[in-house]
Design a protein that fits this description.
By secondary structure, the chain is α+β, with helices and mostly antiparallel strands. The protein is built from nine helices and 14 strands.
Length: 413
């Protein structure tokens, strides 16, 4: 896709902002702690790294001063907050499109500024991993990191602004602003996210995402999916190694069973998580929800028996999608989810195969005429060119938080 990795990132980030270390200590191979690069200093997990030398050099990133980001966000005013989480807050800001210098509100381009809490050393590790991955990786389905600030105890990250917020918001939040996503948009987002993961898993990149979930899939104005939050990402196994041994981290409900039980991390761990998200898209239900009836708290456990039977699949399909899909297409997506959720990781497809399957489903002639109802959700269908998605800026809904609230649940085995 014309994307190249300028320098392979080597990092171990066992902590996630807003998460806790798994209460069950899975043995971690200390040798997996690899050097950042010849351009960066190595550091021990026993102390808090504070040097800018730990950041991989990248011509893609701008180093901001804290004063510049104060100006860009109007001194981090409360009404500039786009989202909040355990690591801190995300603020809306403005920078000049060419120089990236801080500008006044409404002038230049909108950016999202993530500011870490100053009293958390775990957040620094995630912050550093985020820079060292997104500073090197470029792909249409990865969120773009514009720059960072490392000044005294201040730790900030500056990203492209994603007006439609997160997939999680659109699937699970109720309200007039977050309208239910149509079948067409869900499949578009699934394909985009799959392409992002396929890029990470490619032979050139070899990165395991480790925290694939709906809140980490961000959407631009045209509902193009981009993966965000690389604080838990890991380099994949090299040489004759089959896996990476690491402490179990991530979000409960999305982690692969073999990873939970052994701490062995592979690209197939991400594919299981993709299957969970695909199931959430089909059902409109969260992976874990204790407010559901007994026996339905865990979405995967509850839904699996219904996915293989075309007479019972209606039990799990989101009622808000009624009339927007053909049964043939729904069964194909359900079958893909089943494959991704296989207990045996060897039986799961790789991400390239997932992308091909989703492309075939999207291009399938087995379309229901009712798919045209996508136009009700800002989707205009041109028979000759396929779906075209209209721009609708978040500025049209002042006061509404379109950006995801940064959410990361602790993973307990």
């Amino acid at each position: 896709m014309g994307i190249c990795l300028s320098q392979q990132v080597k990092a171990e980030s066992p902590f996630s902002c807003g998460t806790e270390v798994n209460s069950r200590n899975v043995s971690e191979d200390g040798t997996q702690m690899s050097n950042w690069s010849s351009k960066a200093s190595s550091f021990s997990m026993s102390r808090t790294p504070r040097s800018e030398g730990e950041i991989l050099q990248s011509s893609n990133l701008k180093s901001f001063t804290f004063g510049e980001l104060k100006t860009a966000t109007r001194n981090f005013r409360p009404d500039s907050v786009l989202g909040e989480g355990g690591f801190g807050s995300v603020f809306k800001g403005w920078v000049d499109e060419q120089s990236l210098a801080a500008s006044k509100p409404g002038i230049g381009i909108v950016v999202a500024v993530k500011r870490l809490n100053q009293d958390g050393w775990q957040g620094h590790k995630e912050w550093l991993a985020e820079i060292n991955y997104l500073g090197q990786l470029r792909h249409p389905n990865l969120v773009k990191l514009i720059g960072y600030c490392l000044e005294d105890d201040h730790r900030l990250l500056v990203y492209e602004f994603m007006p439609k917020g997160s997939m999680e918001n659109h699937l699970f939040r109720k309200g007039s602003y977050f309208q239910p996503l149509s079948w067409g948009l869900r499949m578009k987002i699934a394909l985009g996210a799959a392409r992002g993961l396929a890029f990470l898993h490619s032979a050139e990149t070899k990165v395991i995402y480790r925290d694939f979930k709906t809140s980490n899939i961000l959407l631009d104005s045209n509902y193009n999916a981009k993966l965000s939050d690389f604080g838990l990402a890991r380099d994949g196994p090299t040489g004759d190694k089959s896996h990476v041994s690491t402490r179990v981290m991530g979000t409960y409900g999305y982690a692969a069973p073999e990873y939970l039980s052994t701490g062995h991390l592979t690209a197939k761990s991400d594919i299981y998580s993709f299957g969970v998200v695909l199931l959430e898209m089909l059902s409109g239900k969260k992976a874990i929800d204790k407010n559901r009836p007994t026996g339905e708290h865990n979405l995967v456990e509850w839904a699996k028996p219904y996915l293989t039977n075309k007479r019972r699949i209606f039990r799990i399909l989101d009622v808000r999608l009624e009339g927007q899909y053909s049964m043939g297409r729904a069964l194909k997506v359900a079958n893909l989810a089943i494959q991704c959720l296989s207990v045996d990781p060897k039986l799961r497809p790789n991400m390239d195969e997932v992308v091909i399957t989703l492309e075939q489903i999207q291009d399938s002639k087995d379309k229901s005429d009712n798919d045209q109802k996508d136009s009700q959700l800002n989707l205009h269908v041109h028979p000759s060119n396929g779906p075209r998605y209209c721009r609708k800026s978040a500025e049209e809904a002042p006061g509404m938080i379109a950006y995801p609230r940064p959410s990361a649940s602790p993973l307990h085995a």
